[in-house]
Amino acid sequence: MIVTATDAAGNSSSSSFTVTVNDLEAPVVSAASNQTVECDGAGNIEALNAWLAANGDASATDNCGIDGWSNDFAGLSDGCGATGSATVTFTVTDIHGNSSSTSATFTIVDTTAPELAWSLNGAAVNAGDALTIQPNQTPVTVNVTASDLCGGATAGVLGVTFHKVNKKGKVIDKTADTEFTIVGGTLTILDAAGVGTIITITANGADECGNVSDTGTLVINVVNPGQGKAVDGNDGVGNGVDGDTPGHDNNGGNDDPGTSPGNPGAKGGKKNR
Asked: What whole-number distance in Å separates Cα of residue 124 and Cα of residue 144?
């Protein structure tokens, strides 16, 4: 810039100078927000990336203009299961290199209990299924396992009860007449105390983060091995191969359950309903 001064007689002199405008003021930044998410077992990548891309929901203003944002995210800490956290510093820089920062924490938690799965003699079953075994069907193995989205989980059988209900509705404890073992999540029944016994098994599971499932219950009924079908209008009850094989009318017979069918029921046998 040139400046000229002139006196009363018309004499003048000139001088030049430069005016420089500096931006020494950093952007004004709002505080970033912490975020907590439930574990998905895979690092919650989508939620984490969205949080980082949004600069932890921080915003900034500057008189001369914003150039961009950066952060120092380097990974999550190693928590229980697939949980973890990271405290991240977000930095905003204006077009003249002035910067401001704000920090917040992204956290993955596991508050979900594991799920139980049951099997009876190696076949998957569900709690609430109408499950039956025969008195000569031993040993019987019941197994319970636990699974969790966020890591490993273990299950254990809490207990088992054996009881019958007599014709008067009285509940009779049959535990003393049974034989069984419990090892972790496996119950092995060696003697189920005969037809009419109701077996009730309880179990639960726990995951790596200490979440414990609700108590699961499986009920098994011990039934007569051959509820025979009517033959010429007459039923018999005996030890047939299966429920569709007729048996003796005297609730037994000399046939071999599991290999030979029972004999047809005698006439006049009580008809199944």
From this structure: 10
Block means of pLDDT (10 residues each) for the chain, length 273 residues?
Answer: 75 72 84 98 96 98 96 97 98 97 98 98 96 93 98 98 94 96 98 96 98 98 68 36 38 40 41 36
Q: How far is CA 9 from CA 3, 12, 13, 42, in A?
A: 18, 9, 12, 88
Distance CA 178, CA 98 (A): 80
Q: Quick check: helix, strand or coil at residue 266?
A: coil
Element (H, E) at 50: helix 45-53
SS3 string, 234-260, reads ECCEECCCCCCCCCCCCCECCCCCCCC
Parallel, antiparallel or unpaired: strands 216-222 and 131-133: parallel
Residue showing tokens 């900034």: 60
For residue 197, what pLDDT is reported? 97
Distance, in Å, from the CA atom of 152 to the CA atom of 212, rounded to the nearest integer, reads 12
- C-alpha angle 29-33-37 in degrees, rounded to nearest 5: 155
Three-state SS for 115? strand
Ordered structural domains, the chain, with CATH: 21-109 (2.60.40.10), 115-222 (2.60.40)
